[in-house]
Write a structure and sequence with these properties.
229 residues; alpha+beta; Transferase(Phosphotransferase), domain 1; three-stranded antiparallel β-sheet; 10 strands; globular; protein kinase activity; Protein kinase domain-containing protein; Kinase-like_dom_sf; ATP binding; Prot_kinase_dom
Length: 229
Amino acid sequence: MALGQDGQDQLDIWRDLATAPRALLSDNHTLPLMREFNIGHIRLGVFPRVSESLSWVYLEGSQNSVGDVLDMILQALEGLAYIHSLGIAHRDAFKTNFLVQFWPESLITGVVPAVRFPEDCPPSDRVCTGLPLAGSITDGYRRNLIPEMLSGEPYDPFKLDVWQLATSLVDFDSTLGPVEAVLDDMASMDPTYRLTANEALSRLRAYIESVPPKSLLFPPVVHKNLPLQ
């Protein structure tokens, strides 16, 4: 989790999110940190056993319905909305950093590039510039980039999280117009129109609650051979 002082800020964020009392909250979907120990100057952690990333829930052979997948996406959005409420932006919120337990629950991991803003920091100052790098990770970034990140101008890291999650789900197709509209707005290339985690969560939840659960019991369409994150 940390190498000497390298990664200490992100370790502090993980401790705050992944241990009691916050780890006990139902809307906090951060992978719990059960124990820490040192090997020399390397800090390691013990976590609950999880299986695959969020992409697993709709892979061929998973036997999950569209309703199951949407439940996982809801949990991912709820987790992002929660950490955002604490002034924490993940900055690597692609689906591979949401791990799934045997009984499906989306758990946030991979907080290495995360950033936390003080409570008294005004919204207009909660911005970042450049690539979402941290600690010893200084080059070789190969993730997709939002347009405002390429410009070198300050950008909203919270909306970056939403964009990253949505673009990494590009191979998932619910075939449901309202659902696809939410995912499209999450992935908007214009930050003005891009949804916040709370907005996406509210819209998606409202749609799911408006339809009979049985109407979501069909398999999703998975688009293959797409560039994924």
